[in-house]
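Summary for the steering committee. One of the milestones for this cycle was to obtain a three-dimensional model of the protein with beta-D-glucopyranose bound, which we needed before selecting residues for the alanine scan. The sequence and ligand used are listed below.
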Amino acid sequence: MKLKKLMAGVMVGIMAFSMAACSGGSAETEGPETQQQSDASGESKTVGISMPTQSLERWNRDGSYLKQQFESKGYTVELTYSDNKIDQQVKDIEGLIAGEIDLLVIAAIDGQALSQVLKDAKDLEIPVISYDRLINNTDVISYYVSFDNYKVGQLQGQFVVDTLELNLDDTSKKYNIEFTAGDPADNNAPFFFNGAFDVLKPYIDAGILNVPSGQTEFQQVATKAWDTATALTRFQNILGSNYSGGTQLDIALCSNDSTALGVTQAIDSDYAGTNKVLITGQDGDEANLANIVDGKQTMTVYKAVANEAIATLDLGVALLNGETPDESLISNSGWDFECIYDTESYDNGTGTIPSYLLTPTVITKDNIQTELVDTGYYTLDENGYPKGVQ
Ligand code: BGC
């Protein structure tokens, strides 16, 4: 906090974040010189950002984009990662609050575990943005910024329907499918699973899709901490118990890339069949994009977290200015990406939380260049594999 005082009122030169991907977003609306954002006493305003872990690739991108965005507008940023440990995240948030931050942006490890620590934020009237994952059972959450999580799952399910040309009037073609979902502590995980399952259920009911393991409930297919090794072991067991006698596996519906990676490894090592298994994912992690290039994973649902950071910045600035943002934030901010304002879908146990939901995109081998490289999010390395620019 000393730093805040020292720097009060001082012009700081922060290179504007200038990714092609963010054109039209707030990041580029100012030149390289940015005025320090100060409160009435002249102190620089500080944004506390609490991310879950650096061990899952995307959160490194989120943390880095968010930091750049807020710093580009002259805010001081305190960024923490909590090693996927709930107690650690509680401590980190306590530390941020003790550091007199003016705004909290949190991607929760466990959406149920933060209501106690956030009471302090409420007492101090610090606005809290629930970032990407909804925080439950606390009325301190002002807003939620994420992607349309149910839609992510729908895109995965619809991809299966379209790719295999499933047709409810033609039950002659039959396929075997297995599901792998995410962390039950993550409020997003059931949304992803339900989105996919709701699209595929009619085909399961019609006997076109069969699930040899019989595991069709979220709790049965969930993966604690979205952990790759956990997904690998579970899938090896599924293959051993249900596919060792020559049964063909056609589809591995995985909610995200960290789980898809484990499932792909299990198929590589333990699946006796020679057919190409359709494997879904989410995020665009580098290892998974490499697998897509190599034909081992079929698709991923990409969520441009650079844009999620822009939406969070504009929302955060409005909150710091004492405003009560609504749908007009979208048009007023001039974002060049799709976003809907949703006041119905996300109830955190204390009422619905107004949500800004961005739109995810399906990525296959065929559109990596146009959707990920030409947009500036990734470059291709010397072997043709995408590498994130963050
Ligand atoms: C995010 C996903 C991510 C998963 C694991 C979810 O909350 O929305 O993008 O794959 O966490 O990190």
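Key point for the committee: Residues 56, 58, 132-133, 182, 186, 188, 226, 256, 258, 282-283, 303 surround beta-D-glucopyranose (CB under 6 Å).
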